[in-house]
């Protein structure tokens, strides 16, 4: 394991450690470092390799050439096949409400959708930028993603807990659940602010391989990503489920202005893969679900957590949290969370307040 260490709520990095941890244990030399910054969900590649040609599709040179998918739709560059596949996948898993008047907006990954949601909730602008907050520890990219275009519409303000006590004026709270980096289930924390606040729910990890699905999420703006749900990060596909038609229209306008839509090739591939997952679950006649996607990947995560806990139990430097079991409506049984990242603590002698390992990414416990 190699790379850098990073506090998930700051950009400060630690590159050296003291020779002893104060508890009688020996701290590894400074060239033994952990990659806590770069993640890549190739952990599921072996599963998709075994699927052979089931997910293969052929696109001819004359297909998918137009900018337009459906000009009558709020999100006119959303391929109808992807919209249908997204709704079907969520119905199969039960992790989000997609029926009724919910609108689907496609983006180039969840990063673009986050920006689109901020734009939609703050335009037209007021006299001051709207504060954007999230409860610490929050996803380390939120501050940069919020402020990098230096928008006059919104600005990153920091920890939602602090804002709850001292903040004033309108705000947007980003609720990331299960949370990156610590895997906990989250709710909004800013209280008693009347109608000044708006919520964005980042549900990238709300899939059954990572956490029990306790209920279908039903929020004003929810976004998901293909990279975390199936592991296909290279396709750069994300989607938002939006209640308000005008908000969905503004989000679509942001995507139009920033990238003039989203790759139709990627959308069609995503639709194909989602369809294969749903077909397998709907056509399964056996009680053994170990070869079905979410069940198989949940076992991968469980095995990695088991190995990691065995290692950490022998350490005097690190500790890991214990996550309570909850009833999962997808599996029909009580289940333990297996977050894609292992949030924990490290001894003060290392100078870290917290630690986050990406179990679904480049921290490979087989190495």
From TrEMBL:
It comes from the Eukaryota. Residues 1-21 have a biased composition (Polar residues). SUPFAM superfamilies: PLP-dependent transferases. GO terms for biological process: amino acid metabolic process. Residues 1-30 are annotated as: Disordered. The keyword NADP does not apply. Belongs to the alliinase family. PANTHER family: BIFUNCTIONAL ASPARTATE AMINOTRANSFERASE AND GLUTAMATE/ASPARTATE-PREPHENATE AMINOTRANSFERASE-RELATED, TRYPTOPHAN AMINOTRANSFERASE-RELATED PROTEIN 1. Homodimer. This is L-tryptophan--pyruvate aminotransferase 1-like. It comes from Pyrus ussuriensis x Pyrus communis.
């Amino acid at each position: 394991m190699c790379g850098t260490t990073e506090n998930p709520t700051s950009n400060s990095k630690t590159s050296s450690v003291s020779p002893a941890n104060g508890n009688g244990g020996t701290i590894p030399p400074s060239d033994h470092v952990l990659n806590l910054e770069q993640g890549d969900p190739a952990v599921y590649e072996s599963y998709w390799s075994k699927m052979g040609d089931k997910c293969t599709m052929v696109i001819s040179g004359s297909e998918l050439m137009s900018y337009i998918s459906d000009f009558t739709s709020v999100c006119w560059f959303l391929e109808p096949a992807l919209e249908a596949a997204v709704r079907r996948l969520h119905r199969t898993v039960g992790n989000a409400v997609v029926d009724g008047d919910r609108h689907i907006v496609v983006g180039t990954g969840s990063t673009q959708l986050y920006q689109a949601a901020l734009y939609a909730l703050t335009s037209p602008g007021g006299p001051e930028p709207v504060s954007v907050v999230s409860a610490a520890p929050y996803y380390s990219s939120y501050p940069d993603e919020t402020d990098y275009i230096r928008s006059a519409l919104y600005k990153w303000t920091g920890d939602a807990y602090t804002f709850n006590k001292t903040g004033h004026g309108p705000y947007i709270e980003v609720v990331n659940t299960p949370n990156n980096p610590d895997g906990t289930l989250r709710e909004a924390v800013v209280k008693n602010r009347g109608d000044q606040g708006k919520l964005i729910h980042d549900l990238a990890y709300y899939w059954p391989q990572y956490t029990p699905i306790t209920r279908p999420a039903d929020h004003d703006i929810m976004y998901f990503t293909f990279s975390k749900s199936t592991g296909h990060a290279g396709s750069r596909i994300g989607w938002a489920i939006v209640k308000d038609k005008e908000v969905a229209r503004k989000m679509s306008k942001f995507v139009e202005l920033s990238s003039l839509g989203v790759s139709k090739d990627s959308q069609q591939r995503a639709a194909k893969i989602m369809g294969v997952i749903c077909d397998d679950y709907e056509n399964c006649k056996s009680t053994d679900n170990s070869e079905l996607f979410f069940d198989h990947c949940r076992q991968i995560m469980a095995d990695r957590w088991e190995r990691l806990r065995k290692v950490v139990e022998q350490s005097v430097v690190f500790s890991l949290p214990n996550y309570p079991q909850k009833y999962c409506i997808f599996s029909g049984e009580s289940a333990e969370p297996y977050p894609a990242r292992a949030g924990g603590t490290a001894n003060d002698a290392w100078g870290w307040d917290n630690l986050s390992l990406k179990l679904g990414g480049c921290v490979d416990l087989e190495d």
